[in-house]
Design brief:
The chain is built from 17 helices and no strands. It is mainly α. The longest helix is centred in the N-terminal third of the chain and has 38 residues. The two termini are 43 Å apart.
């Protein structure tokens, strides 16, 4: 009985952390127009409110996972919860835009600590025959955070301000952090990972991602010669990273996995799916705010279409994947993402809530049809020894896709809007530039649709067999 109680205490604490981190990520997108108006920041600057969060998580997941295997997962998780709560408080108290960005880095460090240890804590607490149940219940916490974020965030911004979104996490995070100190195991039962972390590869990975993010968000301000030099610098970093990973005993990114077609296709398509998804998640709130003139609570309700549709169709996608495999379902999902982006490219000043809902709902359906079969295909073919690494790399690909989606959506929209409006930025928008806004939105979504179609072609090349080693 005591073991059973301990199992559910661990589950509850991990579920709270998962809920807070997903709630935060789904609420902050709704707050971007309000943050831009408050700090008078440009679109490319405002994107860093989300970019800083994802960049920190993407670069530090593997590091904190390694640290947790040495110091104890419970310790790292409880420390992460405290860091997340403190970072949320700092975000709410930000008196300048730069302070907000620094606070987001701090908050994301706590989220990365929780993300890197949560699944392992669940695996450690639940017996093997109940592990699927535990992970499935954690999936409910993820869905609940994504579902409630847009509507709850919209209501909070409407009645209070965007700062209230961050304040919400402070008391819950502090209470859960204290509970984690007393309830989570301090030491790991097993220590299967090596202690010699690939520091050189990890540092190059960090520099590579930061450099790519800065180029994406500030590339419009570079001269042609600076763009060329930046491109060569990125190529040099990629070359050094690949060479370092080939020589490393325990590389951060095991390049040998890329030689396996099921893995290279699965991880590439995962990156593409989140990249194109974030085109809509970043740009549509600005369309709803600037063109349709919705208040934040209505924006939240409209954006709820994506997680609602995903939650509705995800169980069917998981069930069908066992029968028809990932090749058909994942490719169909990417095709629906491309269709949705084509429909979104036709948005204008006369669209109704219902039509926007349908177009965003199609995006949610496509993502749900793609995600579960694709992940199952990659994880199902990996060996038991590789499963932890493969799961971490899938999470890294998803976060990297989100980062690229944020950067490319802002870069493309700013380029087209500036070109069509005579050099203006989104912060200078007025109703007189509605046509230019719509044209820039159209061009950006057409570009995202082309990327989704490329993903669909790549996905169709995956092996047809379901769960066999290649």
């Amino acid at each position: 009985m005591q073991a059973g109680n301990k199992k559910w205490r661990v589950f509850f604490i991990v579920a709270v952390g998962v809920f807070l981190s997903t709630l935060d990520s789904s609420m902050v997108n709704i707050a971007l127009p309000a943050i831009m108006a408050d700090f008078h920041s440009t679109l490319l600057q405002t994107e860093w409110v989300v970019m800083a969060y994802l960049l920190t998580i993407t670069t530090s997941l593997l590091f904190f996972g390694h640290l947790a295997d040495r110091l104890g997962r419970g310790r790292i998780y409880s420390l992460g919860m405290m860091f997340f709560a403190a970072g949320s408080l700092f975000c709410a108290m930000s008196h300048s835009f730069m302070w907000l960005i620094v606070s987001r880095f701090f908050q994301a460090g706590g989220a990365a600590m929780m993300m890197s240890t949560g699944p392992a804590l669940i695996k450690q607490a639940f017996p093997p025959q109940q592990l699927g149940r535990g992970q499935g219940l954690i999936g409910i916490a993820v869905s609940f955070g994504l579902m409630s974020g847009p509507s709850l965030g919209g209501v909070l911004i409407h009645f209070f301000s965007w700062r209230s979104l961050f304040l919400l996490s402070v008391p819950i995070g502090l209470l859960a952090g204290v509970a984690a100190i007393f309830c989570l195991p301090r030491h790991n039962k097993t220590n299967g990972l090596p202690n010699n972390f690939d520091w050189h590869g990890g540092l190059l990975w960090l520099i590579l991602l930061v450099s790519a993010s800065l180029l994406l968000t500030h590339g419009n301000n570079f001269s042609l010669s600076a763009l060329v030099a930046s491109g060569f610098f990125l190529l040099l970093l990629i070359y050094l990273f690949i060479k370092t990973e080939h020589l490393a005993v325990h590389p951060v990114f095991p390049l040998v996995l890329l030689k396996q077609r099921y893995f290279s296709i699965g991880i590439t398509c995962a990156l593409i799916s989140f990249l194109v998804l974030f085109f809509a998640l970043i740009l549509i709130p600005f369309y709803l705010s600037n063109i349709l003139e919705f208040d934040p609570s209505r924006i939240g309700l409209v954006m709820l279409a994506i997680p609602s549709a995903a939650l509705l169709f995800a169980p069917a996608a998981g069930w069908l994947a066992d029968y028809v495999g990932a090749k058909i379902l994942s490719t169909l999902g990417l095709a629906l993402l491309a269709l949705s982006l084509f429909l979104l490219s036709g948005l204008d000043i006369h669209d109704t809530v219902f039509t926007v809902w349908l177009k965003l709902g199609c995006l949610g359906i496509g993502q749900s049809l793609f995600l579960s079969p694709n992940s199952s295909s990659v994880l199902g073919r990996s060996s038991k020894e590789q499963s932890g690494t493969v799961a971490a790399l899938l999470a890294t690909a998803r976060n990297l896709g989100m980062m690229l989606g944020i950067g490319l959506s802002g870069l493309s929209f700013s380029f087209f809007f500036r070109r069509m409006s005579g050099g203006l930025d989104m912060k200078d928008f007025s109703p007189a530039y509605a046509d230019e806004f719509i044209s820039a939105l159209h061009s950006s979504f057409v570009g995202a649709m082309a990327i989704a179609l490329l993903g669909m072609i790549i996905s169709w090349q995956r092996p047809a067999k379901k769960l066999t080693q290649e």
